[in-house]
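User: Fold this; tokens only.

Assistant: Input:
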Amino acid sequence: MNRRQFLALSGTGTLACSGCLSRISGIPESRRVSIGDSVVLGDTTLTVSAPTVQQSIIADPGVFRSVQQADDRQYVTVDVQTNSEVRATAAESDDEIRATDFHVKRSKDLTRPSNSGEETVRIAPVTRECSGVCLGIPIPAEPTKSAKIVYRPRDGPGASWALSEETTRLFAERPVCEWRETRVVEREGRTALEFSVENVGPRTAGYRVLVHRQSWNDQSDPVGFEIPVGETVTETVVPPILDGLDPASATLREGTAGSHDVWVEPRDATTPSSPTPVS
């Protein structure tokens, strides 16, 4: 089944340090709640809600965005809200909530995460919305009986939010997208991109890429849309980063059409090496 949609953009991991899971034992029962509930931590009220389980995320730490995806993992994304301003960062500061202080503890995790080397990051809310800060927490793409989101700062009180059975069931059900085509089109006088992607996996999938413009090396627009099981979706997006680029002369950089990083440039631009295609 094919479905054609139009999307105009308006603008525009868990694994924390290897010893983090051993520190959750000090969380009292009063701060072990269900997902969506609020916890009082000193002068701050912290709420973690709206979890999704995705096969990819667009990391947005405030410097350079990047798409993160691997065959052996997924990402639990959550909306983190407080009654004070939140800056999700890895920096050391007493008045900031650090993204790396959040992780997922599964029932099978005893003292440390299953795969180290990737930390929780702030993400661009592509294919979802967040009222507060969107965080992406990497997890192994494996089944588990239960799991919880754990907040455990280096100093100060921690808390945990139990995930539902419906959410934890998705840990082992990794979505799979297969890219079919990307082409430059014109939409109401603006340069747009048309993506065709098929969902060949077991559940609804999200397709997420970054759109770049030639010579704008430090900027990109996150693009994403959902694809129902068994369907091929053709989606037209109008990235603001392409505003001012003549649709008649715009072209895709060779080798980037099916990758996580799609580059658009004038037809006479130089073509560099190609990135890895999206799987």
